[in-house]
Amino acid sequence: MKLIVGLGNPGPAYEKTRHNVGAMVADSLVSSYGESFSVHKRSGALTATVRIGGEPVMVAKARTYMNVTGRQIGPLAAYYSVSPDELIVLHDELDIDFGAVRLKQGGGEGGHNGLRSISQTVGTRDYLRVRLGIGRPPGRQDPADFVLKPFPSAAKAEVELLVANGVDAAELLVKQGLEAAQNVVHAW
After folding, report:
1. Which pLDDT tens digit goes with each residue over 132-164?
2. How many Cβ atoms from other residues are within 10 Å of residue 146's Cβ?
3. Model pTM greater than 0.85?
4. C-alpha 142: how far from its chain's center?
5. Homologous superfamily of 2-185 in CATH?
6. Where are the beta strands (DSSP E) in the chain?
7. Most C-beta atoms within 10 A of its C-beta, which of 23, 51, 152, 172?
8. Residues 6+ away with beta carbon under 8 Å from 47
């Protein structure tokens, strides 16, 4: 079974922040299939199962803070024997222009503590990633402050498009594999 993980922090104070765009994509993906999240008894994560291209796919969000996401996602991946090429992580990416979506497998964490936590608990960095561009902070603003701020209200349409494109990218990744999905998504 493939496992799609949307990264974010729990609670209403964080739900509209840049750092939670991965969780926003997971929410949109699950609701587009008419499903809803429930607590997975063994891991404590929120999970829902959808069928993408006829294949069952588990979508998950940790109920922990971003920096310790792996505490719930690692056990969840282990319980279902999810291999790195079956693990897809949806996350915000400072080094990609706002609104762009990129796919890759493996690589560094680039200071992203949610990715670092998952890498530590699954024992590898070689999982699939849907990188959701939030852009760099303006001027000398601290990146840690920038990612924890909500998207500006003037960017509502762009955020909705980013989330929709993130859903489409995750579905393509499941249906077509990395290289074919990259050819489509990177042309957007």
Report:
1. 998 888 888 788 788 888 888 888 889 999 999
2. 17
3. yes
4. 22
5. Peptidyl-tRNA hydrolase (3.40.50.1470)
6. 2-6, 38-39, 46-52, 55-61, 87-93, 101-105, 128-133
7. 23
8. 37, 38, 39, 40, 58, 59, 60, 76
177's CB contacts (< 8 A; 6+ apart) are none
Residues catalogued as catalytic? 19
Residue 75 burial by Cβ neighbours in a 10 Å radius (0-12, 13-18, 19+)? middle
Tokens 């829902």 sit at which residue? Answer: 48
Three-state secondary structure call for residue 30: helix
Backbone φ, ψ for residue 28 (5° rounding):
-65, -40
Between the two ends of the chain, the Cα-to-Cα distance in Å is 28
| pLDDT tens profile 16-26 | 888 899 999 99
Q: What are the b/e assignments for 103-138, b being 16+ CB within 10 Å?
A: bebeeeeeebbbbbbbbebbeebebbbbbbbbbebe
pLDDT per residue over 5-41, tens digit each? 999 999 888 888 888 999 999 999 999 999 999 999 8
The rounded distance, in Å, linking the Cα atoms of 35 and 139 is 41
Residue 67 assigned as binding residue: yes
- Give the number of C-alpha atoms closer than 13 A to the C-alpha of residue 20, restricted to the C-beta side: 20
DSSP for 125-158, written as a single string: S-SEEEEEE--PPSTT--HHHHHTSBPPGGGHHH
